[in-house]
């Protein structure tokens, strides 16, 4: 089968969740199918990206977004009903090039990751299409409303409403729909949301494996540190959890690692709080810690950071929001904290009971190996892409 994959970013390097999901799915699909990869891009392309991706796919096309067009589109978005992020990624000149590319390669199926780029492919009615919502973007945006500044709150509230409408309308243009978790599926407010198939993320357990390493920090948090839910989690960890933790563990040390830390994250640095920024091998950050903490309070989706930490055999503490997508068992695979006090107690317990922490970490790794493997999760996607179902009909959308 010839598969046309449409992405909103070049999926290399793997420093963002959508890139990680796209890269591993493409790598697995390319073992059986001819993959034409099409990416729009708004930032400089990594020097190694093209070589890495061309070793996997049969053809790679990257279309660079024009910065002035982005600004113009965002200005125009104020007067439309489309989500700002859809307008951000769509440019008519690129759309014409993608149309010509699709007509040239004549794919058997179009796989579109994220609603951000659905406009580029939705009207190719003669080709079966699948859209990967990945996360329930509208709910993620709704959760940001209360944490946004007074200036940005009306924009965030408007974007939530636009995303909610667009997620429903774009549903009708695609024969198949996928999403990362059952939790996110239930947050797509479409009458036929039962049609959405859950395709979870995976983890490369041969890459993320337990390693002997000197523990140089007590607690670590990892992620793209320019992403709002991660910024919020890092601030919550340092400003709320850490002061209470120090009452029991005055010498406790926290490390926060990940690409492009925002100003708010950099400001958290202190004598006992280390902000490392980009780490060449993220496994070093995980392996350096006695406990991994993912105190997610906003956002959606399955947290890759939890999959990776558990795969490396690091005892983990997380929030119900993050674990609802993961579906791990509290006190068996990890510990789930409902509030600041519980985060402190769980972290202290794991630090004070290394044998129990190690046993829990082993069970957590086994859980990940059995449930979250890229080869197995992508098999379900492969079967879906090979079905040529019929669309349920189009709704008019004049955003």
State the name of the first-level CATH class of the largest domain. Alpha Beta
Q: What is the approximate shape?
A: globular
User: What is the helical fraction, as a range of percent?
Assistant: 40-55%
- CATH-defined superfamily of the largest domain: Glycogen Phosphorylase B
Beta content: 15-25%
**Spatial gap, N to C terminus:** 34 Å
Q: Tell me the count of domains.
A: 2
Give the number of helices.
16
List strands and helices in order, with pairings.
Blueprint: E1 2-7, H1 17-29, E2 34-41, H2 49-54, E3 59-64, H3 67-77, H4 84-89, H5 92-105, E4 109-113, E5 129-134, H6 137-144, H7 153-170, E6 176-179, H8 182-185, E7 197-198, E8 217-222, H9 228-248, E9 254-257, H10 263-266, E10 273-277, H11 282-287, E11 289-294, H12 304-311, E12 316-318, H13 320-326, E13 335-336, H14 340-352, H15 354-371, H16 374-385
Helix pairs in contact: 1-16, 6-7, 9-14
General description of the model:
The protein is of the alpha/beta class and 399 residues long. The protein has 2 domains: 2-202 and 375-385, Glycogen Phosphorylase B (Rossmann fold), CATH 3.40.50; 217-372, Rossmann fold (3-Layer(aba) Sandwich). Helices cover 42% and strands 16% of the residues. It has 16 helices and 13 strands. It has helices at 17-29, 49-54, 67-77, 84-89, 92-105, 137-144, 153-170, 182-185, 228-248, 263-266, 282-287, 304-311, 320-326, 340-352, 354-371, 374-385; strands at 2-7, 34-41, 59-64, 109-113, 129-134, 176-179, 197-198, 217-222, 254-257, 273-277, 289-294, 316-318, 335-336. The protein has a 7-stranded parallel beta sheet, with helices on both faces. Strand 12, helix 13 and strand 13 (335-336) form a beta-alpha-beta unit. Helix 1 (17-29) crosses helix 16 (374-385), helix 6 runs antiparallel to helix 7 and helix 9 packs across helix 14 (340-352). 47% of the residues are buried. Residues 389-399 have low confidence and may be disordered.
